[in-house]
Structure to design on (426 residues):
């Protein structure tokens, strides 16, 4: 019988940072120690649902606490549960399997359940020697049933046992789920510079370069905006962080949802707590950005990608050339409006998708003209389920020089901007 459960965000490989929440649960391995990573939101919600179901639950974030593998194992010896729940991802698998092998060696009789929205993309042969089962999909929605099923190896939604080679369909959170508040209190929140939350999950767009619809599903499911506003205010008042980041890939896809959320947020807190979002350009209309700014939105991550109608169409970002032109106009308008409303705008640009010198030049000219506050350049990664990357049409050194020029065209705010924000919420 399982009564106690310990959730684990495993240690990174030496010299790296395992960002398991990144890229819709596909994960990101940052090639520097103590690099950027999202706090383990999957653990916070997972701990909360099992705690609500009556289990004795704890959490270890080895990445946040900067624990080595030996130090993590020493810590676990003082907290041996009936079940280990371990967060794993395809892109951090080298670190994950290293930890799982050590865990099995030290605790051979304790069952191990793997979780992660994209964990089921890890081949069965790679994880099955080291774990009892894997829960595919949205862990917070399937964990209670999975933990109840484990002792007798009974079936449950999304539960993939090590002795079964055929993967199940991932369990997905439905529309308007009722969830407990995330159990950040069970994790080392003092080391996190921000906390995260979500108002929706999944994406119905078909961009061929994007892993988000693979990790979070290809149908968009939303939470009640009033519940999300309550959670954000609770996070700010309980933990006092200067930043709160929404992990939704398409925060503003439903304008009325955003308006309701903003209205509920301003009704509950004055001033409202600071929050950040990401989205496509065409969703971020001037009217919506105005309401978001008044409700405390401080930063928008804008999925610009590339200024090339042909590539936008070829990779299914937009349906046709006319839509591509409208998309580019919407991006320019979103950047201008963010600046007008006092919202930081970080434009995300994508390379490695077969771009030419002319297309890079067009993107650079766009950045130079419209001057977002920041630019982040990402290289296309062929995550599981995505197409193979095209051959690079440009030398690597040419791309690096281009990236440096893009940064020179940005217009970061003065440091005092953030200092004022922190004073408001101190």
């Amino acid at each position: 019988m399982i009564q106690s459960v310990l959730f684990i965000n495993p240690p990174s490989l030496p010299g790296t940072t395992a960002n398991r929440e990144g890229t819709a649960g596909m994960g990101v391995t940052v090639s520097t120690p103590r690099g950027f990573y999202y706090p383990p939101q999957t653990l916070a919600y997972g701990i909360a649902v099992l705690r609500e179901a009556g289990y004795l639950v704890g959490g270890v974030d080895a990445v946040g606490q900067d624990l080595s593998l030996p130090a993590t194992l020493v810590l676990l010896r003082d907290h041996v549960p009936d079940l280990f729940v371990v967060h794993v991802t395809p892109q951090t698998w080298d670190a994950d399997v290293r930890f799982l092998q050590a865990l099995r060696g030290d605790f051979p009789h304790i069952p191990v359940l793997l979780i992660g929205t994209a964990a089921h993309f890890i081949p069965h042969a790679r994880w099955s020697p080291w774990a009892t089962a894997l829960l595919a999909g949205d862990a917070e929605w399937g964990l209670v049933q999975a933990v109840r099923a484990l002792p007798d190896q009974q079936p449950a939604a999304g539960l993939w046992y090590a002795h079964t080679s055929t993967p199940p369909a991932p369990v997905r959170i439905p529309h308007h789920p009722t969830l407990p508040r995330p159990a950040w209190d069970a994790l080392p929140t003092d080391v996190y510079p921000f906390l995260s939350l979500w108002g929706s999950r999944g994406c119905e767009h078909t961009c061929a370069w994007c892993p988000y619809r693979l990790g979070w599903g290809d149908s968009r499911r939303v939470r009640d905006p009033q519940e999300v506003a309550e959670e954000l205010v609770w996070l700010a008042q309980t933990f006092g962080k200067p930043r709160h980041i929404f992990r939704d890939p398409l925060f503003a896809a439903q304008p009325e949802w955003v308006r309701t959320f903003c209205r509920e947020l301003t009704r509950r807190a004055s001033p409202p707590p600071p929050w950040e979002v990401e989205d496509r350009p065409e969703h971020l209309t001037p009217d919506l950005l105005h309401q978001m700014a008044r409700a405390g939105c401080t930063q928008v991550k804008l999925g610009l990608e590339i200024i090339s109608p042909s590539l936008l169409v070829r990779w299914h970002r937009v349906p046709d050339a006319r839509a591509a032109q409208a998309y580019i106009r919407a991006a320019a308008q979103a950047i201008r409006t963010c600046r007008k409303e006092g919202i930081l705008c970080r434009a995300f640009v994508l390379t490695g998708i077969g771009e030419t010198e002319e297309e890079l030049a067009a993107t650079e000219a766009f950045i130079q003209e419209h001057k977002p506050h920041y630019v982040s350049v990402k290289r296309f990664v062929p995550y599981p389920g995505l197409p193979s990357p095209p051959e690079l049409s440009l030398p690597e050194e040419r791309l690096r020089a281009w990236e440096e020029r893009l940064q020179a065209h940005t217009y970061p705010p003065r440091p005092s901007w953030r200092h004022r924000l922190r004073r408001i919420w101190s």
